[in-house]
Amino acid sequence: TPPELIRNFCIIAHIDHGKSTLADRMLQLTGVVEERAMRAQYLDRMDIERERGITIKSQAVRLPWAAPGRDGKTIDHVLNLIDTPGHVDFTYEVSRSLAACEGAVLLVDAAQGIEAQTLANLYLALENDLHVIPVLNKIDLPAAQPERYAEEIAHIIGGSPDDVLRVSGKTGAGVKELLDKVVAEIPPPVGDADAPARAMIFDSVYDIYRGVITYIRVIDGKITPRERIQMMSTRAIHELLEVGVISPEPIPTVGLGVGEVGYLITGVKDVRQSKVGDTITSAAKGATVPLGGYRDPRPMVYSGLYPLDGSDYPLLRDALDKLRLNDAALTYEPETSAALGFGYRCGYLGLLHMEITRDRLEREFGLDLISTTPNVVYRVTMEDTTTHVVTNPSDWPSGKIRDIVEPIVRCTIISPSEYIGTIMELCQSRRGSLGGMDYLSETRVELRYTMPLGEIIFDFFDALKSRTRGYASLDYEEIGMQEADLVKVDILLQGEAVDAFSAIVHKDSAYGYGVSMTAKLRELIPRQQFEVPIQAAVGSRVIARETIRAMRKDVLAKCYGGDITRKRKLLEKQKEGKKRMKMVGRVEVPQEAFIAALSTD
Ligand code: GDP
Ligand code: MG
């Protein structure tokens, strides 16, 4: 297809604003999916995506569309709809998907208005110079207020409220007009057809039958099957087994030229060999300069993952090995905890990535898991100028510390204006500093804060939601590192530190953490035969203390007299209970206590 007839675009939207449903209508309207084969959220393939309504992996689908071209005559065009992951953890993948497009449909729920994720992705789109088509969705809803939110959108992106298209992904109203507008307004791709091939990888997924499927956007030249290609970041050379387009099933083609979007298969078995953002060129007479913007995936949040049942450890290892094939950002290494036994220290892009991974391990591999408090990456410099990268409280160095730096993010919060006070209070208590505030309309406001990532991963989102009755939305991006006064707080049972409960917190929060953790544990740990002091300590300084009083626990005392079977039953029951106990020194701690103490409430 000549580039003039191609339009590459994506849909950016806040979660639940109707991106998947609109994509469904586009598939139907362009005849790519027949009426009877249609099922809801056609492009969201993973079960977990459907259940949670999120899109984890971006997909690209080719849609034929006859529309008036530049000269007014109706002509067949090719639209490539590139689906972007919607969540903050995947900002880099979103930015690569956007970089594969010339335009974006900004989709806003006509009953909700612009939300934080919409804005964050809009900024990314504008940074990538995309042409933005504003659209209000769900106009069929009785609660829709298109006039009001069209004003809001115009206020943000400029232009007139009348330019904002109104559609319903549910009824299909306005979708044809939208596709025509995509052709009319989004610029066609430009590239040098005679230059050495350069294509950008915007996604790669692992398929058990075919190995890694790599999604690419060709910038220059042509990629043809049965040539050899080179990954420019690693110089690795791969044989091409297949090149094609997705519409909506994979269809092999004779090649992909300038501006085209499609997939290729090389037979590699691990997505790390086909990295998002990398440039592909021909192995022979290839390009010498890669496309800009490549970045290695880098974990931002670490947490320990342990099987509830210690004998599941090998199962956990196999499961992680399998997940890794399809997840270039997941890292893990073995870790042992005195309290929790054998497990893995896992690195994730963010909290959602962590949740999804744990969820998949439990659901797809039948594991029962316990995860420790998440941790960001700190850099600690000692007086003697040695530095430590700390992703785990147990790696906190002892000795004289000169300084500590921690990752900082820029947050965007959108909320009804009545909650400004409570949001500011919350952000301040999390060491946030206000960067700016804008009214989107008379009743809705955008707040910008810089805040330590470490404060956000600690139940910030839940706190924000509960203080704003669920109305506030949040998005954030990392902007760098900043010095901070942090300490490690240890929790000791009978003088013995329980590694799973250690935490790195700001100096001013150490006391609060110590008090709440010791109080929680006093409730959770049953009485023992002896007194158990619970202490919170920074170094050797105790900052909080609780005590579990001793109790003489004699199960047999109840059954005076001779019924031997009843006695045996009780003893067995007690033994079974013990299996789910973990020993910390001499103290028996039920597994439930660990789970409860590690969950934020
Ligand atoms: P996504 O998270 O942006 O992909 O949103 P979905 O497409 O999954 O839609 C979220 C919810 O909104 C689903 O329950 C849809 O059925 C509903 N929805 C999507 N589009 C429309 C629409 O145009 N009208 C109405 N009434 N509901 C819609
Ligand atoms: Mg979706």
Automatic annotation (TrEMBL):
Subcellular location: Cell membrane
Protein family according to the UniProt entry: Belongs to the GTP-binding elongation factor family. LepA subfamily.
Pfam families reported in the protein's UniProt record: EFG_C (PF00679), GTP_EFTU (PF00009), LepA_C (PF06421)
Organism, scientific name: Nakamurella multipartita (strain ATCC 700099 / DSM 44233 / CIP 104796 / JCM 9543 / NBRC 105858 / Y-104)
Binding positions (GTP): D16, H17, G18, K19, S20, T21, N137, K138, I139, D140
GO MF entry, a single one: GTPase activity
Protein name from the UniProt record: Elongation factor 4
GO annotation (BP), single: positive regulation of translation
PANTHER family documented for this protein: TRANSLATION FACTOR GUF1 HOMOLOG, CHLOROPLASTIC, TRANSLATION FACTOR GUF1-RELATED
EC assignment: 3.6.5.n1
